[in-house]
Amino acid sequence: MSTQRLALAALPVVALLGTAAFAPLPFTLAQPGTTADVLGDDHGTPVISIEGAPTRPTRGELRMTTIVATGPKADVGIGDVVDGWFRTDRAVMPRDSVYPTGGSEKEIEKHNLDDMAKSQDAAVDAALNYLGRKPGSVDVTLHLADIGGPSAGLFFALGIVDKLDGDGSGGDLTGGRTIAGTGTIDAKGEVGAVGGVSLKTQAARRDGATVFLVPKAECSEAKSELPKGLRLIPVRTLKDAVNSLRALEHGGEIPGC
Known about the structure:
Strand content: 15-25%
Order of helices and strands: HEEEEEHEHHEHEEEHEHEH
Structural class: alpha/beta
Oligomer: single chain
Low-confidence stretches: 1-22
Number of strands: 12
Mean pLDDT: 86
Shape: globular
Radius of gyration: 22 Å
Helix content: 25-40%
Largest sheet: 6 strands, mixed
Number of helices: 8
Distance between the termini: 59 Å
C-alpha cells in the first residue's frame, strides 16, 4: 500500500516538471555584447566632441562594455536556463533585474535611452568638476548610437578628462593601452555598480583590452569568469580611476580585486 501511495504522490511532481519544460520562465539570457572606444568615432561621428577649450590628441582606447540580453517578452524555457547555467559565455538573470521598469519593448527602450542621456550629463559634470572647471565652461557633446542605460558613465567621464587633460603631465591616461570597464557615475564622480560584469570582462578581452576598471562593489563577480590576460582594477570614484591609470604608466600603488 505504501508503495502505491508513493507512486501516486510522485505523479503531480512529474506532471509539474513536464509542464515547466514547456512553460516560459521569468528569466533573461545574456551574453557578452559590443564594446565602444569613447576616444574614437561612432559611425563616423566622434563619440566625444568638445568646443570652447583646446583638446589634445589621444592614444590608446577607452572601451565601454555592454551585454546583449533576450527581450522582455522573449520566452525562456527550462532548457535555456539549464544550458545558461553551465556556460561561461552566458548568464541567466532574473528578468526584473534587466528590465526593472516593465512595460512594452518601446517603453523599455525609451527608459534606457533616457538613462543614457542622464548618464552623459552626469559624466560631463563629473569630468569638469574633477578638472576644476565650472559647468558650462566648455561645450561637450556625447554621441553613441544604439546603446542605452547608464553603465558607460565612468568611461564617458574618463574620455573627457583624457581629451582635455590627459594624465596631467603631458601623457595619455591610457598609456597607449586598451582599457575597458564599466560603471555608472554621478556629478560628484562617485562610481556605481552595474549588471553583467562577468560577461563584460569577456567582451573586453575579446576586443583587445588588458585592463578592466570595475566598480569596487562588483569585484567578486568580475573575478568569477575573468579571462586570462585581463587585469582588474577596482574603483569607487573618477579620481580613483584616473589615479590608477596614471600609476599604470608612471609607477605607483594600484589596487586589485
